[in-house]
């Protein structure tokens, strides 16, 4: 991955990295966290400006978020028709809508760095639901700043071990995402089961014939 990012930087500079992040944040499954750590490793081994790298990374990530939001805004109700034709789309939209209902606008912030696989879906549903653009942009920018800074720093600090660290972080990212989704589903199930249990309390049981 370091060789790939090095070639990308030599050929296109930080613009190439920004385009990669934009495409990934729009929805193409690319190892963006590993890309950022690789760029962080380059910071430790070259005269590349950390501030410039951070700026281009943020710009690319936010551009991808904005493209997803705009797509959702333009498609609107047509997303439901697409969902009816694809179980993958239906599952993605359903999961992120539940996540958005639980966390509100903060779901945009959390999906940039904590549950990053949900980010592209949140972009679409935020646009389709008509979330105000300034709110979406502010929450998204804050989350992207944390994500970019964290992974660039990891790459810089552990440049000698970047391959192992990249694999570990990639696995941890999916594990955290799975844990959050599991907790959320469990919470929803509990709130569905609890009222039913209450209705079957002793005061509601049929005492039978006297």
From TrEMBL:
Keyword flag Transmembrane helix: yes
Residues of the VTT domain: 30-155
Subcellular location, record wording: Cell membrane
Record keyword Membrane present: yes
Organism superkingdom: Bacteria
InterPro entries: DedA_domain, VTT_dom
TM annotation in the entry: 12-45, 145-166, 172-190
Keywords: Cell membrane, Membrane, Transmembrane, Transmembrane helix
Topological type in the membrane: Multi-pass membrane protein
Protein name: DedA family protein
